[in-house]
Amino acid sequence: xxxxxxxxxxxxxxxxxxxxxxxxxxxxxxxxxxxxxxxxxxxxxxxxxxxxxxxxxxxxxxxxxxxxxxxxxxxxxxxxxxxxxxxxxxxxxxxxxxxxxxxxxxxxxxxxxxxxxxxxxxxxxxxxxxxxxxxxxxxxxxxxxxxxx
Length: 149
Description:
Elements: H1 3-15, E1 21-24, H2 33-42, E2 46-50, H3 57-60, E3 65-69, E4 71-76, E5 79-84, E6 99-102, E7 115-117, H4 130-139, H5 143-147
Parallel strand pairs: 1-2, 2-3, 5-6, 6-7
Antiparallel strand pairs: 4-5
């Protein structure tokens, strides 16, 4: 395993506990299923894959994923999160406060309101925890929304 991979495993396990649930937003690995399965076995948490454009069949079928899919609508703590590897221009319940989480753009895309690139390239190569995400969401609310409360 490469030095960069070892660092990513260390960052993951420093952030994710054994009982945590992880939604990986794609482009996990370009290796065969055995290599991906071995890597997944080293990572803490229950792991779900939202499939990215670089996730080959071996990554998708690897032992260690609890689920694999292209798109997820996930209600968490009274909020609806829309998860996809790719960012959207619009998404379900956007006007009702839903939040789009994506990867793919490596921190190079200026997102819309309530849209967040949480790929490793945009998050200092560490998974983004729910508490961190909710704090970011609260701090980035539009001015009109802040003034109405």
